[in-house]
Amino acid sequence: MLAVQNLEVVYDDVVLALRGVSLEVPDGKIVALLGANGGGKSTLLRALSGLLDIHNGEIRKGVVTLDGASIGQLKASAFARRGIKHVLEGRRVFKELSAEENLRVGAHANRKNLAANLDRVYELFPVLKDRRDGQAGLLSGGEQQMLAIGRALMSDPRYLLLDEPSLGLAPKIVEQIRDIVVEINRQGTGILLVEQNATMALAIADHGYVVENGRVVMDRPAAELRNDADVREFYLGLGAEGDAAKSFRSVKHYRRRKRWAS
Amino acid sequence: MTEFLGAVSGGVGLGAVYTLLALGFVIIYKSMQVISFAQPAFMFAGALLVTYLTPQIGFFLGVVVAAIGIAAVGLVVERLAIRPMVGKPVFVIAIITIGIDVIVRTIGGAFVGRDPRQIGDPWGNQTFDLAGVTIYQRHVAAVVVTTLLVLALLAFFRWTPIGLAMRASALDQEAAMAQGVSVGSVFAISWALAGALATVAGVFAATNTGGSMDRNLWLVALAALPVIILGGLDSLGGAVLGGLIIGVLQQLVAVYHRDWFPFLDTNLREITPYLVMLVVLLVRPHGLFGTKEVERV
Ligand SMILES: Nc1ncnc2c1ncn2[C@@H]1O[C@H](COP(=O)(O)OP(=O)(O)OP(=O)(O)O)[C@@H](O)[C@H]1O
Ligand SMILES: [Mg+2]
């Protein structure tokens, strides 16, 4: 199990981004992590993947553990080798490399099953197979997200940390990404899913957390969160009457005005 | 015409030296966004090492061993002096590389002595005749070796996992780290490659002057800066083409300066690269193949 306990993270020695967060990602489960902008979701993923350093971030208190052993002090490459792969916010494909080269870089931490993993990724994302030799930067937003996820899968990760994979994508593509996440999980990978699109995330998650201002304000089974009145109002865009604000944009807009804790 | 072609062939031989140096600059720049001003010292130290190795183990093996040796020096320097500075402003790191340059050249200078040292190459001043044009063997050797090294580099960046990782890291460092790429190894390998390439450049810089080197050999390396401005700081292809263009241009000026600039006493040869650099900075700041964002360091 991948976990953090009482984690405090500071950027630039001054910005306190996480204030005592505890969270668990059990093997083979999907865990959703929700919360308003600036709440600390990406920071938590960075702590779980060794990427705080490059942002001049630092763990001040608490621990990151993998199967009980503290791993918070390791380098990013060591996290990847231990089977924890972070799909960064904003896709971040290597734009000037071909799609297939992107995937081959994804195998860097574990090249053992490169050929088999390539087949597996092309099976999950047939569109990438068609465009394997094209420059990744020329792919559509949805295809780039698929490439970013596929790239992470190339090293057979035990845990996948997804940072807002549906951001800026059309509803059809979001559905596709959702199904892929479910399929990846079914094949045995534990998933920590950070989402703006709470409807999507809670629909497939086993458990959910809500963070606000660097603190966990909710920690419940996803089914409970789906039915919680506050969550429905603030994160699912559902009013008391239960009328759904279907558009992702309006959900986002709504949430920007109202903050969880206020 | 034969004079012109002779100048061009000499220019290509000189350009090969610039290309090898420029490739080192570009590889380091791509991996850490820093211009390493230690390249002249690596070139100097590499050539110097060859002058000591040739009498013991022969010229060719000497070049190989020296290249590996200077690559190792590059690794050590990067680990001890550069890596701890990562995260500091790039001009701080650039200044540190200048310090390394001075230190390495000073230490090396003690081993040069008063007289020039012989590099021990087999080509000397021998020439052959190609359709009436007199061509120096050493220029052919420089071009052949440089071509082979460029092809080897291309293969390295295209086919090996670490080469691919280095390209990925140059494009998006954090995303590469998320794939498990160790940025430290990327830095280290780029310094080692630059050191090895500079060694070979130093050898041909010495053969180009007839096979000997003195304390001032490193000055040749300064002309590689105009080359990377011309080719683009972050372009390997630009380093190759820029090296050739500047080398050939410089040699043409050297041969024709009396015809072209009869009013000037001094040969413009030495300043040609810098004049080209000025023009490039004015009309195309990112160079021939450079990325637009990296026009200013
Ligand atoms: N590299 C950084 N340097 C300094 N402060 C940062 C950095 N990254 C994030 N922060 C700060 O840390 C806090 C948490 O940011 P974080 O990006 O983790 O939030 P988030 O929940 O991912 O937000 P979003 O939904 O906008 O992606 C914010 O106050 C943010 O300003
Ligand atoms: Mg974020």
Secondary structure category of chain B: mainly alpha
The CATH topology of the largest domain in chain A is Rossmann fold
The helix content of chain A is 25-40%
Bound ligands: adenosine-5'-triphosphate, magnesium ion
Largest Cβ-defined interface: A-B, 34 and 18 residues
What is the CATH architecture descriptor of the largest domain in chain A?
Answer: 3-Layer(aba) Sandwich
Query: How many angstroms does the end-to-end distance of chain B come to?
Result: 41 Å
**Biggest sheet of chain A: strands, sense, closure?**
6 strands, mixed
Number of helices of chain A: 11
Largest sheet of chain B: 2 strands, antiparallel
The number of helical elements of chain B comes to 12
Principal-axis shape of chain A equals globular
| Widest beta sheet: strand line-up of chain B | 1-4
Taking pLDDT < 50 over at least 5 consecutive residues as the criterion, the unreliable ranges of chain B are: none
CATH superfamily of the largest domain in chain A: P-loop containing nucleotide triphosphate hydrolases
- End-to-end C-alpha gap of chain A: 34 Å
Helix and strand run of chain A: EEEHEEHEHHHHEHEHEEHHH
Write a structural description:
The complex is a heterodimer of chains A (262) and B (297). Chain A has 262 residues and is of the alpha/beta class. Chain A folds into two domains: 2-83 and 158-227, Rossmann fold, CATH 3.40.50.300; 95-154, no CATH class. Chain A is 37% helix and 25% strand. Chain A is built from eleven helices and ten strands. Chain A has helices spanning 41-49, 76-81, 99-106, 114-124, 126-130, 141-153, 171-186, 198-204, 222-227, 229-234, 248-257, and strands at 2-11, 15-25, 30-35, 57-66, 69-70, 84-87, 159-163, 190-194, 207-212, 215-221. In chain A, the strands form two sheets. Chain A has a six-stranded mixed beta sheet, sandwiched between helices. Chain A is globular and about 45 Å long. The two termini of chain A are 34 Å apart. Chain B has 297 residues and is mainly alpha-helical. Chain B has a domain at 13-217. Helices cover 70% and strands 4% of the residues of chain B. In chain B, the strands form two sheets. In chain B, strands 1-4 form a two-stranded antiparallel sheet. Chain B has a two-stranded antiparallel ribbon with strand order 2-3. The mean pLDDT of chain B is 91. The chains are: A alpha/beta (262), B mainly alpha (297). At the A-B interface, helix 2, strand 6 and helix 3 of A face helix 6 and helix 7 of B. Magnesium ion is lined by residues 41-42, 89, 163 of chain A. Adenosine-5'-triphosphate binds at residues 11-12, 15, 17, 35, 37-43, 55, 89 of chain A.
